[in-house]
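QA checklist item 7 of 12: single-chain prediction sanity check.
[x] sequence parsed
[x] length recorded as 182
[x] structure emitted
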Amino acid sequence: MNFKDLEERMEKTINVLRESLSEIRAGRANPAILNKVTVEYYGVETPINQIAGISVPEARLIVIQPWETSLLKEIEKALIKAELGVHPNNDGRVIRLAFPELNEEKRKEIVKEVKKLSEDAKVSIRAIRRDGIDEQKAKEKSGEISEDDLRTAENEIQKLTDRKTEEIDKLIEQKEKEVMTV
């Protein structure tokens, strides 16, 4: 029995979780929080990283240097609209995003958000497991596989689900440490 499709779907779920986690600020400046911020550039919504250089010279500072200085105002507007929790500082050549130190309350809030993302990912994994088991039950019902094959398939699908759930737990544990470390 080949469960490649189920594994790919579960892996996609985990990749979405990874991306979501990378966008969560954990006390350090992380350019990934800019991934979803777009600027209108010649009539097309364009990600900031495609029209500017982005660097992190210090732990809590992101510097955005547009390739065209005429884009400074547009980038600044997009950053304000994105509500990143920091105000952009435009000096006429670059934009600086200075991230304040996170207090304990804010860290706990972020950990709650991380746990919610974790639970959403686990729900998706379980839904994929259910789809796989339903598919195997349908095959058994139509006579394509035996009852023993069904039981074996269910066990294999459960093992796959457990592995992916463990992977989610490890990702979440890492992110929680990152957030709670001062």
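[x] summary fact logged: The radius of gyration is 22 Å.
[ ] second reviewer sign-off
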